[in-house]
Fold each of these.
Amino acid sequence: MSKGFYKNRRLKSFIFLSACFLVALIPHAYNIENFLYLILTLSLVIVFYGLIVISRNFKRNKVSTTVSSKLSNKELPVLDILVAARDEENVIARLVERLFNLNYPTNKLNIYIIDDGSSDKTPLILNRLSKQYEKLKVVSRSPNAGGGKSGALNYALKFTHGEWLLILDADAQLKQDSLIRLFSFVEEGDWSAVQLRKSVTNESKNFLTSCQSMEMAMDAIFQYGRLSVAGVSELRGNGQLIKKETLLACGSFNEDTVTDDLDLSLRLLLSKSKIGILWDPPVMEEAVENLNALLAQRQRWAEGGLQRFFDYGDQLLTNKIDFLQKFDLTYFFILQYALPIISIFDLILSITLLDTPIYWPISFTAFMLSGIAFWYGSYCKSEVPVLQKSSFLMVFVSVFYLSHWFLVIPWVTIKMSIFPKKILWRKTLHTGV
């Protein structure tokens, strides 16, 4: 990536940060008449659209989680499963064993594990597994090959020959019939890509893992609703099925972003490719178990999430997508990225000027909608329960847990505005427990 790009990104980040600061400053600096009424009106709009999005899940929840029809072996397409693995000695053997136990025609299933420059026992384990499973295809890259997960996946693409690609993380767990049900869902919806709902395997480990379990359910609630209302949905990295032809037409995986899934989601939207959201069966994965790992992960997500809007913002403003899609993207961009920064500046200005915070009704509205989605996601019928035991108190505490985004987003935006950026992929440790 050129130095010019980094300056361009830094400039866009600085402009965005400055705009958020001005939005927070102006009502404190000038006594704008009826400004509170404007804030309350915006809050009502946010509530109205948010409730519509959440309510679209009622219809989904009434539908049986079992597929209405199963495809015959002859109808099932050739599928390539790709797993980029770096230093995954704790989970790689379990993953390979489970992948070869999935219900799918063996002559139509290819499994590729990309050893992406591992320095632990992963290469030795894969060498042993390749002797145990003849159809296991191990692709090796050098430690300095570059491109991170995206680079590993792009490198492996030239070895694949299936019609569809399923991208999994090394800690992924699927039900035995997941693949057959997944393609039945594809057949019914004519999707170009499908994201399986993500579920947590270690949700009972501690407070953080329980909150992440509920957060993933909340995310799926919003994603399904957004898809139903506006036709906008996003991939989530692990458990994403993509038609190979569609992926190649979009330019494969972007090696210049730290969140290839979010980047690809916007490119698919711009190319009019539909991403389906499948609630059950889910893909299961480990949640991070400590605060440092959580913050490192969320900083990466925040950086990649912002970068995609900076990269494709001009295209999103054109006629490549319709008005409702533009409204939906604007709505969630404001809530996810602008609101945390504006709220922090609003709080700092209130303390400095001994004034009353102004944007609290919008923040309250955003947290309220999250709480509703938390609660509904936790109680929805699910093959893998979101929590072993849920309660109103747990929902309330989980909503409070979301406030970490109000620190992460401003901090990441400030870093993107000031410091030169090198693309760094921070690995999430998988324990296998």
Note: The two ends are 38 Å apart (CA to CA).
Amino acid sequence: MNQLTDCYTLNDGTKIPCIGFGTWQAKEGDIAVTAVRTALEAGYRHIDTAACYGNEDSVGKGIRESGVPREDIYITTKLWNTVRGYNETIEAFHESRNKLGLEYLDLYLIHWPNPANFRDRWEWANAESWRAMEDLVKQGYIRSIGVSNFRPHHLEALAKTANTRPAVNQIRLCPGEVPLTNVNYCRERDILLEAYSPLGTGKIFSVPEMTELADKYGKTVAQICIRFSLQMGFLPLPKSVTPERIADNTKVFDFELSKEDVERILALEGIVGYSHNPDLTNF
């Protein structure tokens, strides 16, 4: 990857820009609108949101205000945990699509595999939602479908009834949390790993080893994290609402971490805590 618009090729043959702009915790209203518009002005062409973020209206407005043609932007949103089932998923998808103001979405994900409301029947619930998503692809409303926060046993369960393999699995991947069992499982099946919270939800900035690496390469800690993600073959989704940081986070193509430094980062296990166990969440 040599520039922001370089792409990975998904297992369905479609292409996805190698870095996405994350919008989790970008508040609905001027904050989210400005952040998305600023990201697109900085060169991002991949925007990631979700129904539960509560900002799809603003993300759509930011996209329109940017003036960037729709066909040049890759847009993802996600099905929230309160919704499962065939008809319910169709309805939720169109609600998200209408909030975003789009005729189609590039990628639609099941946000979590085992919601609290469906814990006694999560396999069936995911299968029915996936069936709806497959039909939405056939109807031209979605180009690719995937999952988020799925672990191997969730993917195995989905595969029992799915006609389409997930194109991506969006999971928390950052220095301190690289779950190799899940990573290797997805790699073996050509499921692209998207890295949400690639900056460890901000905790990474207080890790001395990361500061040392930033000093060594003359880069910011965030740039080291994003570069690490790319060299691991992940697709990072950095989030910021600060214009300077939004721009800085794109400047990761003019250096390369040594193999030794990649291994050093991989060894920093647990430095920013761990993600929720999807089978034990209360949401």
Note: The domain at 14-198+235-241 is CATH 3.20.20.100 (TIM Barrel).
